[in-house]
Design goal:
alpha+beta
Length: 107
Amino acid sequence: MCSLSLRRAWWFLDTFEGQLVRGWDSGADLTAELDTEGGQDRYLLVPLAMAAYHRRGLHLDANQIYAYAPPPIVTGSFDVDQIQAFDFVAVVNTVGQLHEQLRNNPS
């Protein structure tokens, strides 16, 4: 999950769909949604993160996130065994380039 505040709203960078979407009107709204089980499942992917941590023993450094290799946009699979720890910036950059390529050449 990546969120940022622009123009008095909070936005969600959906790396699975390759979209930046307006999610919340305030930081308080974002926090309130992330305090729910549904918000944690949708935006933080808590069940997948917990499986990567507990079942696979993957631990993160401060600048890392869990990500799929290869990503689900390529495989169509959300199998926890495909999750690895990667640098945050590298994942966002790579997934952004992949979505751009797929939009320009869908075949």
